[in-house]
Design brief:
There is one protein chain. With 268 residues, the chain is an alpha+beta fold. The protein folds into 2 domains: 17-180, Beta Barrel (OB fold (Dihydrolipoamide Acetyltransferase, E2P)), CATH 2.40.50; 184-267, Beta Barrel (OB fold (Dihydrolipoamide Acetyltransferase, E2P)), CATH 2.40.50.40. The chain contains 6 helices and 7 strands. It has helices at 52-56, 82-88, 130-133, 139-157, 161-180, 228-267, and strands at 5-7, 71-79, 111-117, 126-129, 184-194, 200-208, 217-220. The strands form 2 sheets. Strands 1-5-6-7 form a 4-stranded antiparallel sheet, covered by helices on one side. It is elongated, with a radius of gyration of 26 Å. The N and C termini lie far apart (65 Å). Pfam families: Chromo. One of its GO terms (cellular component) is chromatin.
C-alpha cells in the first residue's frame, strides 16, 4: 500500500538463480615492494560488469529495479556471524578492517556482505549472506565486488607487514566515509505519513553528512532519534520563520492601512 503524505515544508532544496559455486577468474597483479597501491573493492558504477548473468537470463529494464529489494552498492564483507554477535552484545554492527591476511581466498558461502539498498539511506544498510542476495536485482554488483576482493587478497599477500599497515589505513579511511554517511547533517523538511497499518508517523527530510542534497532521504522520526539535536534545530528554525512571516504580514497590513488612510484624507 502506498503511503499518503502531507508535506508541511514546501520549500525543499535539491532535488535466474545463481549457483553458489562461482568460479571467479583471478588476474595476476603487478606490484612493487617499495610502494603500496590503494585498492578499493567497493562497487563502482563505472566498473566493468561480469557478463555471466547476461548469458544466463534476459536483461531487465531499469524500471523493474523499483520492485522489491534492489542492491545499489556492496560496501564491505566479513566472516558470517560477526554482525549477529555484535547485535547480541549491543555493539555496533558497522564494518571494521580485518588486519589479518587469510592464507586462503575468501570462501564466499561463509561471508556476509554489507549492502546499501537502492532508494534508501546508508542508515538502512544491512548484512546479508550470498544465498540471501543471489536472486535480488543488482546481484551482478555482488559478483563484481567478489572479483575485486579476490584481486585484493592476491595483492595483499605480497605486501610486507609495514605495507599491510599502510594499506589498512587506507581501508580505515574508506570506512570512515561510510560511517560519515550515517550522520545527520541537516533536516530541512517534514511531513506526516501513514504506514501500511494506517499508523501516523512523522518523517523528516535528511541531508546526510558528506553527501549532496540530491541524496537526501525521508526518515521516520524513530529511525533518527539519535539526531534529536538536529530535529530540535529544525523545529526552532521553523518557529522562527513562522514568527518572521507573521511579522512581515503584520507590518505590511499596517502600511496598507496607513496608505489607505492617507489617500482618504487627500480625497476628502
Amino acid at each position: 500500500m502506498k503511503k499518503t503524505s502531507q508535506i508541511r515544508n514546501k520549500k525543499i532544496v535539491g532535488g535466474s538463480t545463481m549457483p553458489l559455486n562461482i568460479d571467479l577468474s583471478r588476474n595476476e597483479l603487478r606490484h612493487s615492494g617499495r610502494s603500496v597501491r590503494k585498492v578499493s573493492y567497493v562497487e563502482s558504477e563505472d566498473s566493468e560488469d561480469i557478463d555471466e548473468e547476461k548469458l544466463n537470463k534476459p536483461q531487465k529494464e531499469d524500471a523493474e529495479e523499483d520492485d522489491g529489494d534492489s542492491i545499489e552498492r556492496v560496501l564491505w564483507h566479513q566472516p558470517k556471524g560477526i554482525a549477529e554477535e555484535a547485535a547480541k552484545d549491543n555493539r555496533s554492527t558497522l564494518p571494521v578492517v580485518m588486519s589479518i591476511v587469510s592464507e586462503s581466498e575468501p570462501l564466499w558461502d561463509d561471508v556476509e556482505f554489507y549492502i546499501k539498498w537502492k532508494g534508501q539511506s546508508y542508515l538502512h544498510s544491512e548484512w546479508k549472506s550470498l544465498v540471501e542476495l543471489q536472486n535480488l536485482t543488482g546481484f551482478k554488483k555482488v559478483l563484481n565486488y567478489m572479483k575485486k576482493a579476490n584481486e585484493e587478497w592476491i595483492y595483499k599477500k605480497g605486501l610486507s607487514r609495514e605495507e599491510v599497515e599502510v594499506h589498512d589505513v587506507s581501508k580505515e579511511m574508506e570506512l570512515d566515509l561510510i560511517k560519515e554517511y550515517n550522520q545527520v547533517e541537516r533536516i530541512f523538511a517534514d511531513r506526516i505519513s501513514k504506514t501500511g497499518n494506517d499508523d501516523v508517523v512523522t518523517e523528516y527530510l535528511v541531508k546526510w553528512k558528506g553527501l549532496p542534497y540530491a541524496e537526501a532521504t525521508w526518515e521516520k522520526d524513530t529511525d533518527i532519534a539519535f539526531a534529536q539535536d538536529g530535529i530540535d534545530e529544525y523545529k526552532a528554525r521553523e518557529i522562527a520563520m513562522t514568527v518572521q512571516r507573521k511579522l512581515v504580514d503584520f507590518r505590511g497590513g499596517r502600511a496598507k492601512l496607513a496608505c489607505e488612510g492617507l489617500m482618504n484624507n487627500l480625497n476628502g
